Amino acid sequence: MKTVFHPSSSRGFADHGWLKAAHSFSFANYYNPERVHFGTLRVLNDDIIAAGEGFGTHPHDNMEIITIPLEGSLEHKDSMGNGSVITAGEMQNMSAGSGITHSEFNPLPDQAGNLLQIWVFPKTRNITPRYGQLRYDPARLFNNIVNFVSPETNEKKLWINQDAWISLSKPASGTELLYHMNRKGNGLYLFVIGGEVEAGGQTLGRRDAIGIWDCDEISIKTNIDAFLLLLDVPMN
Description:
By secondary structure, this protein is mainly β. It has a single domain (2-234), classed as Sandwich (Jelly Rolls). 0% of the residues lie in helices and 56% in strands. It has strands at 2-6, 12-15, 19-23, 41-49, 54-60, 64-71, 73-78, 83-87, 90-95, 100-105, 113-120, 130-135, 145-150, 158-159, 165-169, 176-180, 186-199, 202-204, 209-213, 217-234. The strands form 3 sheets. Strands 1, 13, 14, 15, 16, 17, 18, 19 and 20 form a 9-stranded mixed sheet that branches. The protein has a 7-stranded antiparallel sheet with strand order 2-3-4-11-6-9-12, with no helix packed on it. It is globular and about 45 Å long. It starts with a strand and ends with a strand.
């Protein structure tokens, strides 16, 4: 087993007034040569967007983009004709493929929004762009690891153009979960949204993360009720 620990305080931080962002990996004006990516996981941004503000229309191509709201709402519009508002308990993904444009705004006039945005390098380049959106029952996460994004076509999951699996979990204090890698050669990037857990020989608190690879399964012990993001991605 190999590991790399990324404490919350080691992330890159940017304050643009309307946007406060924490970057787990090099992004925009934050560059750390030791934190460019974890396998095919390229971006994990923890964004707080001020009320009524957002990202204007901008382009993407050849990237898998997953957005998970934690608080508040996010309004999405794109060049494929999709337009929707997603809130906590929902997530969306876009396969940017051969190229798209989109915008993301906080539609609430009096409440900031907090979201996680994930970028994963694609398995196949220049595919036809796709969009997906999913609502989930948070109760399913209790003491359970639930997969929501995978390379398999499934009406209960979002499809990703990569051999990657993205899951959420809310284990209670005293719980031990065993995570099994979905594919040989993949690694797990475990991000603690809240609470405290032990994994890979490390204690992780709120917004800490650990990358673990060269193993088939990982034990996750919960010290304080936790909310976890698990990113199972190819390392090559």
